[in-house]
Write a structure and sequence with these properties.
Blueprint (H helix, E strand, L loop, with lengths): L5 E7 L6 H11 L4 E7 L5 H7 L9 E6 L8 H12 L6 E5 L6 H14 L5 E11 H9 L10 H12 L3 E5 L6 H12 L6 E4 L7 H5 L6 H6 L2 H8 L8 E2 L4 E8 L5 H9 L5 E10 L2 E11 L2 E9 L6 H10 L16 E8 L3 H9 L5
Parallel strand pairs: 1-4, 1-5, 2-3, 2-4, 5-6, 6-7
Antiparallel strand pairs: 8-9, 9-13, 10-11, 10-13, 11-12
Helix pairs in contact: 5-7
C-alpha cells in the first residue's frame, strides 16, 4: 500500500451553510476510523461543542479543536503540526477538517501542497476540498442582489465566491428552500465561478461518506486553472470593448498595459474602488520601482498589494543574458523599453461600465 494512504478532506463554506450538520451526518455513518479537526474563530468552539453533543460515537480516534484564529492564517502552523501528528497514528483512516466560515480554502490547500512536497514519508494526502453552499442564500444575494446599492453583504458574497471557486466538490445544501427552476439558476450561476467541481445536492447536509471520498484526488493546479480569474484570462478577447457577460449580468475583462502605474494614483483608486467590481486580481508594477512584480487582489471592499518576485528584465546583464539564451521564448513577449514588465489585471463584476473602469486605470498610468 502507498505510504500516502490517509485521505484528508477539507470542508469549507460560509457561516450557516451547513458544515457542522454535514459532519454530524458523516460521523453517524461510522464507515471509517476518522480524526476530525474543527476550526472556529471564536474563543469558544461552538461547532465542536455541537458535534460533541450530537450523540455520536465521536470520531473513533479523536477530535482536535482549534480556536481563537483561522487555520488559513493565524493558526496555520499549529494546524499543520496537528496534521503531522495525526499522520503518525496508523489507526486513522481519514482526516476531516471543518474550516471556519471565513477561511480561504486556497491558503489551506496551499499549506497541504507545501507539506506533501516537503515530507517524503507522510501517510496523508489532500483528497477533497469540499465547499458547502447555502443555495438559498446564493439565490437571494448572489444571483439577483449582487451589485445593487442596498446590498450590504458584498464582502460576504465575495468570500462565498472564493470558497466556491477553490474546491473540487460542491455540496449544494438547503435545496428544499428553492424550486427546481431556482435551483437550476443557482447551478448555472455557480458554473460561471467553478467549471469543474462536481455538484451534489442535498438537504440538511445528508451526504454519503463514500461520495466525498471516492473521487479523483484534489489537484491544486487544475482547480486554480479553472478559477473565475483564469477563465477570464483564457476566454476574454483582450482587444474587445465588450466584456464577456453571462446570463446573470456578471462580466469580466482583462486590462493589459506595458507602462507602469503611478503608485499614489493607484492607491487613491483602491481607496475609492468601484463597488460594482466583485473581484480583481493580477500583476502590476509602479513607476518608482522597476525591479519588483506586485500582486494586486481585490474582493468587495478588501484589497491588497503584495511585493512578489523581480522582473526578469531587472536582473543584472551577466545573469540576464544566459537566461535569455536558454529560454528564447521570453523574447516573444519582450518590450524594448520595459522588458517583461507589464500590468495584467482581470476584473469581474456586475453592472459596471468597462470604458469607465478602463479610464480610471489609465488615469493611474504614469505619463
Amino acid at each position: 500500500m502507498s505510504k500516502r494512504e490517509v485521505p484528508i478532506v477539507v470542508i469549507t463554506g460560509y457561516l450557516g451553510s451547513g458544515k457542522t450538520t454535514l459532519m454530524q451526518n458523516i460521523l453517524k455513518q461510522e464507515k471509517r476510523r476518522i480524526a476530525l479537526i474543527v476550526n472556529d474563530m471564536g474563543s469558544i468552539n461552538i461547532d465542536a461543542s455541537l458535534l460533541n453533543k450530537s450523540g455520536n460515537k465521536l470520531i473513533q480516534v479523536e477530535m482536535i479543536e482549534m480556536q481563537n484564529g483561522c487555520i488559513c492564517c493565524t493558526l496555520r502552523d499549529e494546524f499543520m503540526e496537528q496534521i503531522e501528528r495525526l499522520s503518525q497514528d496508523k489507526s486513522i483512516e481519514a482526516i476531516f477538517v471543518e474550516a471556519s466560515g471565513i477561511s480561504e480554502p486556497s491558503s489551506i490547500a496551499g499549506a497541504f501542497v507545501n507539506y506533501e512536497e516537503s515530507t517524503e514519508d507522510t501517510r496523508v494526502y489532500l483528497k477533497t476540498v469540499c465547499s458547502v453552499v447555502d443555495v438559498d442564500r446564493i439565490y437571494r444575494e448572489f444571483l439577483h442582489d449582487l451589485g445593487s446599492d442596498d446590498n450590504e453583504d458584498g464582502d460576504i458574497i465575495n468570500l462565498v465566491i472564493d470558497q466556491i471557486e477553490f474546491c473540487n466538490l460542491m455540496i449544494l445544501n438547503k435545496t428544499d428552500l428553492l424550486t427546481e427552476e431556482q435551483l437550476d439558476e443557482v447551478k448555472a450561476g455557480l458554473r460561471n465561478i467553478q467549471q469543474e467541481a462536481e455538484m451534489i445536492t442535498c438537504t440538511h447536509g445528508d451526504v454519503d461518506l463514500d461520495v466525498i471520498l471516492n473521487r479523483e484526488d484534489f489537484d491544486f493546479e487544475e482547480v486554480e486553472a479553472f478559477s473565475a480569474v483564469q477563465k477570464a484570462l483564457n476566454n476574454c478577447e483582450h482587444d474587445d470593448e465588450k466584456a464577456c457577460v453571462d446570463e446573470y449580468g456578471i462580466s469580466s475583462f482583462v486590462f493589459e498595459e506595458r507602462r507602469p502605474f503611478n503608485r499614489d494614483a493607484f492607491n487613491r483608486l483602491v481607496e475609492e474602488y468601484p463597488g460594482e467590481l466583485i473581484r480583481s486580481k493580477g500583476y502590476i508594477w509602479f513607476s518608482d520601482d522597476w525591479k519588483h512584480v506586485q500582486l494586486f487582489e481585490q474582493a468587495g471592499r478588501n484589497a491588497s498589494i503584495t511585493e512578489l518576485s523581480e522582473w526578469v528584465s531587472a536582473w543584472p546583464d551577466k545573469e540576464l543574458e544566459p537566461v535569455l539564451a536558454d529560454f528564447p521564448d521570453l523574447k516573444d513577449d519582450w518590450d524594448e523599453t520595459y522588458g517583461d514588465r507589464c500590468n495584467q489585471l482581470v476584473f469581474i463584476g456586475k453592472g459596471y461600465e468597462k470604458t469607465e473602469i478602463v479610464k480610471l486605470l489609465y488615469d493611474c498610468i504614469e505619463a
